[in-house]
């Protein structure tokens, strides 16, 4: 009995020891699993984040390389294509000379200055610039006068009507025969149209001009006693006579101021930006407001002479222009002095850049410029 009880105690103690060991192992295993899971969690997440960041950076780098590659390819293609297109050399800004002296022999070219710009120009500045231009032109063309040959107001009005759409030189070659055959308004009023047409044929539009000069001669004979009237409102009633012709007659046959707005005058005053108007009557009013009335007739001559000799419509001789520093359109024409000098047109009265000698018919007995016909 004692042996069996002792054996039972021994078995029980062994089971107890084994249970304790098993419990200790299980506890140790749980503790080990907890530590392992705790260690594994951050370690796993961190590499995942790094891997994601790495993938994003790789994508950006790939995109950057792709864009850079495309840009480089485009630049390379542009460089290859560039030699096929020749680029025009950059234009140098035109610089106006202080005063053109190319037209005068033996005078060295003057230093250059930037031309005056009219942008934002005040009314006062415009008036000063316009009047200075007229003063400069008066020095170049001191004897500027109408370039039509005439001996009395009747001849002047007829010659002015004939000057439309032709040159003054052509008119001066035609009128001597006309006035020799028809010296008075009464004679021309009674003329046979076909005979007048034959004389006027060289001036162009000879049929229309014949009708005008015969018509105005009849009007002078019937309405004004054969005399040319000295008032604007009477002159413009004559066939073929507009404001331009009327002011030529008033200013040069009667000494009454007027602005002659012909094609040269219109072109130059717009080129100088005295006005932006295009209608002749509005140009006359705009320019007339810039000058004293007493200057109007001479101003017209100065501008017209300059337009015929230097400031041409297609190829202005900018390099030989005496008012280049005052002209906002400087550079539209030839600026090289030597080349510009070849563009000058030498008409009656000499050439610009020198004191022009007037024709003898324009001088009085003392050798001085004669006053306009009918003045005084």
Automatic annotation (TrEMBL):
GO MF annotations in UniProt: 4 iron, 4 sulfur cluster binding; class I DNA-(apurinic or apyrimidinic site) endonuclease activity; DNA binding; DNA N-glycosylase activity; metal ion binding
Gene3D superfamilies named among the record's database cross-references: Helix-hairpin-Helix base-excision DNA repair enzymes (C-terminal), Hypothetical protein, domain 2
UniProt remark on cofactor binding: Binds 1 [4Fe-4S] cluster.
Superkingdom, taxonomy of origin: Bacteria
The keyword DNA-binding appears for this protein: yes
GO biological process: base-excision repair, AP site formation
SUPFAM superfamilies in the cross-refs: DNA-glycosylase
Keyword Ribonucleoprotein: no
EC number: 4.2.99.18
CDD domains named in the record: ENDO3c (cd00056)
Region: Disordered, residue numbers: 1-123, 349-376
Keywords, sorted A to Z: 4Fe-4S, DNA damage, DNA repair, DNA-binding, Endonuclease, Glycosidase, Hydrolase, Iron, Iron-sulfur, Lyase, Metal-binding, Nuclease
Cofactor: [4Fe-4S] cluster
Biased composition (Low complexity): 7-21, 35-71, 79-115
Residues spanning the membrane: none
Function, in words: DNA repair enzyme that has both DNA N-glycosylase activity and AP-lyase activity. The DNA N-glycosylase activity releases various damaged pyrimidines from DNA by cleaving the N-glycosidic bond, leaving an AP (apurinic/apyrimidinic) site. The AP-lyase activity cleaves the phosphodiester bond 3' to the AP site by a beta-elimination, leaving a 3'-terminal unsaturated sugar and a product with a terminal 5'-phosphate.
HAMAP family assigned to the protein according to its UniProt record, in alphabetical order: Nth
Family the entry assigns: Belongs to the Nth/MutY family.
Protein name (record): Endonuclease III
Organism: Streptomyces coelicoflavus
Gene that this polypeptide is encoded by: nth
